[in-house]
Specification:
By secondary structure, the protein is an alpha/beta fold. It is 32% helix and 25% strand. It has helices at residues 18-29, 44-49, 51-67, 83-93, 100-108, 155-158, 163-168, 183-194, 214-226, 315-333, 351-354, 373-378, 394-399, 432-440, 445-448, 461-471, and strands at 5-14, 34-38, 112-115, 118-122, 125-128, 131-141, 145-147, 175-179, 198-203, 230-233, 237-243, 246-251, 256-259, 261-264, 268-270, 302-304, 357-360, 365-370, 383-389, 406-412, 417-425. The strands form 5 sheets. Strands 1, 2, 3, 4, 5, 6 and 16 form a 7-stranded mixed sheet that branches. Helix 3 runs antiparallel to helix 4 and helix 3 crosses helix 8. The radius of gyration is 24 Å and the shape is globular. The termini are far apart. The mean pLDDT is 97.
């Protein structure tokens, strides 16, 4: 019979991805003893199967696309990308799927790492193998999400790609079907088309990137088509099978498509099905509802941070939540009574509601923060959309020939502040933080006139947007 070991900490963090790491960093900085539990690789989804490998795949694609827009350089980069070299660089960024460096970081902050599948086994208690970890103050669950596959008969036998396969594949399939129209689908279609695959993108809805302004998806679809991808909107998969190694897709119209691999990028599901939620009165497999301090509703000790609370499924937003949760845990551990409603305080993840930034690393890049026009109107704001064609900006012409892009700001007409901003065009991802500051800071339009953009840069789009608002 195995003897059970019990260890007590101030805080136990379940999940060592970037979100869990940041919770641990903040609680350790506050002097709280902290244990971190991880069943896979320390660093989580982002480091090995999402943010880092996907952007490592996409960076050469976007650099080549930019180079091809410049006379004097375009002819030098007409050939195909060196796919093995791109994949080798991607492998380097993942550490070849080893986590030694991140394990050392956990140790460096003074947290204890427990490897294995952790489960809640009662209030303030997590069990990992034969070890029981008890928390004096808080348990923070940061187990993230997994790919959600549709309910198609025989799908498991097809061995479809999920996002993990798409970012870790060691060669380019000759023909790749991508199912979905969101961020993962468009980014992976962009990457693999450029790396040598013939991509067919099947989108059930009317367009791509349907959570952004409509023109974002339109410009990305146009560019994917120009790059050689076959983009089909309003198309659903009726059945899929694998025959002698070939994937056979039948659409809802009866059309048959053959491919070497098929990627389903059709959503995410919370990794909460086997972490013991039932032992504390919660439903396994569910998203966890939290307050703005990230504390699970109905509890005074359990926190759900990152994707599993379904507030904003983005790594940077999860890390933001982790900083808030860590501060709240530390304050409560010190006996501080936190206010219930304190927007924009150190203990409230206020930005989750109407100020979330995101960049889609397609060609062109699509970047947005805050509310779209549709969202702002649905929220009851009296707003006006102000649009600018990026070709009117001198910096765009210098960036590359035949620059195509568009910008939109959503102006609250009652408060004269910005509710949202969207940029679509080559090289615009780095511009979104200026928009984030304007939205989060609720900078008045009158003051934005005094934020003078440098000439001739892409950031001069801000001046064009303000002029369009003033003159129309």
């Amino acid at each position: 019979m195995t003897e059970t070991e019990t260890n007590t900490y101030d805080v136990v963090v379940l999940g060592a991805g970037p979100v869990g790491e940041n919770v641990a960093d903040r609680t350790r900085a506050a002097g709280l003893t902290t244990a971190v539990v991880e069943s896979e690789l320390v660093g989580g989804e982002c480091s090995y199967w999402a943010c880092m490998p996907s952007k490592a795949l996409l960076r050469p694609v976007l650099a080549q696309a930019d180079a091809r827009r410049l006379p004097g350089l375009a002819e030098a980069v007409r050939g195909p990308l060196d796919t093995p070299a791109v994949l080798a660089r991607r492998n380097w960024f993942t550490g070849d799927w080893t986590d030694d460096g991140q394990v050392e970081w956990i140790k460096s902050i003074g947290a204890d790492l427990y490897r294995g599948h952790g489960r809640l086994t009662g209030p303030r208690e997590v069990t990992v193998g034969d070890t029981v970890l008890t928390a004096r103050h808080a348990v923070a669950v940061a187990t993230g999400t997994r790919a959600a596959l549709p309910d198609l008969p025989g799908l498991a036998e097809v061995r479809p790609w999920t996002s993990r396969d798409a970012t870790s594949a060691q060669s380019a399939p000759g023909r790749l079907v991508v199912v979905g129209g969101g961020v993962v689908a468009t980014e992976m279609a962009t990457a693999w088309q450029a790396l040598g695959s013939q991509v067919t993108l099947l989108v059930r809805g009317k367009g791509l990137l349907d959570r952004m302004e409509p023109f974002a998806g339109e410009l990305v679809a146009e560019a994917l088509t120009a790059a050689g991808a076959d983009v089909r909107t309003g198309t659903s998969v009726a059945s899929v099978s694998r025959v002698d190694g070939t994937v056979v897709v039948v659409t809802d119209t009866g059309e048959r498509i053959e491919a070497d691999e098929i990627l389903f990028a059709t959503g995410r599901a919370p990794r909460t099905d086997d972490i013991g939620l039932e032992t504390v009165g919660l439903t396994p497999g569910s998203w966890l509802s939290v307050d703005d301090s990230l504390r699970v509703d109905g509890t005074d000790w359990l926190y759900a941070v990152g994707d599993i609370n379904h507030r904003a499924l983005l790594t940077h937003q999860g890390k933001y939540q982790a900083r808030i949760a860590g501060a709240a845990i530390a304050a409560r551990a010190a006996g501080t009574d936190l206010p219930e409603n304190a927007p924009w305080s150190a203990y409230a993840a206020t930005a989750d509601h109407e100020s979330v930034p995101q960049v889609v690393f397609t060609d062109p890049e699509a970047a947005a923060v805050g509310l779209s026009l549709t969202e702002a109107e649905a929220a009851g704001h009296r707003v006006r959309a102000v649009d600018v064609d990026l070709s009117s900006v001198s910096g765009a012409g210098l960036y590359g020939e035949d620059y195509k892009g568009r910008a939109r700001m959503i102006v609250d007409l009652d408060e004269e502040i910005l509710r949202g901003v969207t940029f679509v065009g080559p090289g615009l991802g780095e511009l979104i933080h200026s928009a984030t500051i304007a939205v989060v800071g609720q900078v008045p339009i009158a003051r934005l006139w005094h934020a003078v953009p440098s000439y001739p840069t892409l950031s001069e789009v801000w001046l064009r947007l303000l002029e369009a608002y003033r003159d129309n």
